[in-house]
Amino acid sequence: MTKHAKIPPQHQDSMPAAEHEMTPAPDWRPRYPGSGRLEGKVALVTGGDSGIGRAVVALFAREGADIGIVYLDEDRDAEDTRRIVEEEGGKCHLVKADVGDHDAAFGAVNEIAEHFGRIDVLVNNAAQQFVDFDLRDISEEQLRRTFDSNVMGYFFVTQAALDHMPDGAAIVNTASVNAFKGNDKLVDYTATRGAVSAFSRSIATQLLDRKIRVNAVAPGPIWTPFIPGSMSDEMVEDFGSHAPMGRPGQPWEVATSYLFLACEDGSYFTGQTLHPNGGMIVGS
Q1: How many domains does the chain have?
Q2: H/E element holding 215?
Q3: Which residues constitute the domain of residue 202?
Q4: Which terminus of the chain has a lower count of CB atoms within 10 Å, N or C?
Q5: What residues contact 177, with CB distance under 8 A and at least 6 apart?
């Protein structure tokens, strides 16, 4: 079991929040030497600047991939992640864009594809969440913002990427344990993650003829900028304690699922979901 530093109360008034302001810092570092499982590949990761996205980017770079990152507005986190990729010996291209906007999403994907020449692995990961204790408190503006980021963005980015992906490529979408068990404080976010699960299974079937594998990862409570960006001090301090393992997970513990599904190790997986969630037993 990974060591877990106690999380002190903290809150940031932004969504997405900043990783460099979190205490303790999320643990994104890969644990093992690379073995070339993504050697020569190009991976596009939305929301790759921080949190789970940063851990995925770091691990993919260690395994030999060059990385395109699409991020919203966290410039410092994005530059920090670019340095991580370069220290692993990879190339990194950053694009600042709101994937919930059709033209911005297509523009970002096309820029990365033109920069590297193709996209071999797509990770749809960018998302936002907001805590509300009463369904009636969810404003139309918030509802549309959450669905634009978490659902429309996945559609737009995937639509754009398919023109640049060779047969046999891989798509990995970020879902959530909440899509399987529900969450009464994150109703709109949970609904979007359910949509991602259905989206993943549907396009997995649609893309079988191109041998493009489509899978999802449904993390449990993971210590990422989502948490101080959406929760109160008290909720942050208690975060992850309800998981059977008694602690939140760290981003590096989730990134390995993405690598498995992105590389040939997962060659017989499509339309499936992996559940790094600290021991919560949920339907698949």
Answers
A1: 1
A2: strand 213-217
A3: 36-274
A4: N
A5: 218, 219, 220, 221, 275, 277, 280, 282
107 assigned to some structural domain = yes
Torsion angles phi and psi, residue 76, rounded to 5:
-65, -45
What are the tens digits of pLDDT across the range 61-77?
Answer: 999 999 999 999 999 99
Task: Please pick, among 71, 154, 189, 258, the residue that the annotation labels catalytic.
Answer: 189
pTM for the whole structure:
0.95
Q: What is the DSSP letter of 151?
A: I
Give yes or no: 189 in active site: yes
Arithmetic mean of pLDDT, 67-96? 97
Instruction: Give tens-digit pLDDT for 150-185.
Output: 999 999 999 999 999 999 999 999 999 999 999 999
Strand ranges inside 50-155, DSSP E:
66-71, 92-96, 121-124
Q: Could you say which DSSP state residue 1 is in?
A: -
Half-sphere exposure of 61 toward its Cβ, with a 13 Å CA cutoff? 27
Q: Given the structure tokens 């523009």, which residue do they identify?
A: 107
3-state SS class at 36: coil
The distance of Cα 168 from the centroid of its chain, to the nearest Å, equals 21
Among 229, 232, 221, 280, residue whose Cα is nearest residue 254: 221
- Residue 169 vs residues 26, 39, 40, 67, 250: alpha-carbon distances, Å: 30, 14, 13, 15, 27
